[in-house]
């Protein structure tokens, strides 16, 4: 029997939608469905948590899919889908924008709700999808047919994951999607059994509800999609976020209190506090900011991560020592932050070559540096290798970051283009920026979620 604690029941009373909310969202959803169906070109379907009755009170999102015949060309589907989406948004007085995932869709604000109007193909089998979104209606039907009696457990799991900072499959969060939360609750038969199991998970944990896994995955967490044997629903979950979830489960099982659903407010970092932290740590702090590329986050975020890692590698190749680095994407600008343990170096460095007994290569190395300006060498070091002591090109991190050598680092092409056009380098306490105060606070007050709750 799936019993709940008083704390869990109290949490449910605050996250379960009230009847007025349900009536409101259902009325708008029905209105939109009717509009799609009356178009004569597509059939409407509400998907996502609203359709599954697993949405949390206060959520104002409605996802309406517009299903088109599978034999329609991709070009026609995209054109008709955008036209129909615009028409519906305009008809109900909504402000709308066109967005792009695998193909374009319309995002609108209608009657106070954030509405996505998404075209897709009405395929009869998830194994024959023509675009990634074609799979979503199958997800909705699967959950609708299996979730009965566990809706409240899903609400607890979502609230628990959101409070712990592990909810969301976007590339910045790298956490648990809503559909994944639903499947996990189904697998374990409730919120408490899931959390009890989660505290013992290992990296590589594999869950196959339908017992039909079609391929192997090497992701930190593997949950086989019950409607597609070749898809890992948990592919978005990073190793770090899996670790966070495991720790949260352990913490909650040891002390199941309300803080795991509604955590204490994080301290709000101020400019003065930031300056004090930077001074106390005594490390070298460097930031690079540049305009956010005009691309969807699914394109920008991986490039942002690749670029940050590429710059870190460039710094290390030049002899500097890094403690940590991170990046954040805001609407207007992106920010990269590097904390250096060593950010200033002496002019001299030793370049070591091959062993002397490696005839041909040793000779090439020696001859290469005979006529070059060096501090010392070539000479044979204690390991029997040729070495030279040379002039270092970059003595400070600041000089390297300001130079064109920065762009020899591995970068995403859109990020590099934006950075070349307009980049701002800051150091030390000057790295403070009100626009990313939360990012800065999280970077310097880095603590896992469960530890934060234990200290509270």
The tally of helices reads: 16
Distance between the termini: 32 Å
What is the count of β-strands?
15
What is the SS-derived class? Answer: alpha+beta
Uncertain runs are none
Structural commentary:
The model has no long low-confidence stretch (mean pLDDT 94). Helix 6 (151-163) packs across helix 7 (178-188) and helix 7 (178-188) crosses helix 8 (191-198). The protein contains 16 helices and 15 strands. 41% of the residues lie in helices and 22% in strands. The chain has 456 residues and is of the alpha+beta class. Strand 13 (376-380) and strand 14 form a beta hairpin. Strands 1-2-5-4-3 form a 5-stranded mixed β-sheet, with helices on both faces. A 4-stranded antiparallel β-sheet has the order 10-11-9-15. The protein is globular, with a radius of gyration of 27 Å.
Write the topology of this structure.
Blueprint: H1 6-15, H2 19-38, E1 43-47, H3 48-52, E2 61-68, H4 74-91, E3 95-100, E4 104-110, E5 113-121, H5 136-146, H6 151-163, H7 178-188, H8 191-198, E6 205-207, E7 221-225, E8 228-232, H9 239-254, H10 271-281, E9 284-291, H11 297-317, E10 321-329, E11 333-342, E12 348-355, H12 359-370, E13 376-380, E14 385-391, H13 397-402, H14 413-421, E15 424-427, H15 437-444, H16 449-455
Parallel strand pairs: 2-5, 6-7
Antiparallel strand pairs: 1-2, 3-4, 4-5, 7-8, 9-11, 9-15, 10-11, 12-14, 13-14
Helix pairs in contact: 1-6, 6-7, 7-8, 8-9, 9-16, 11-14
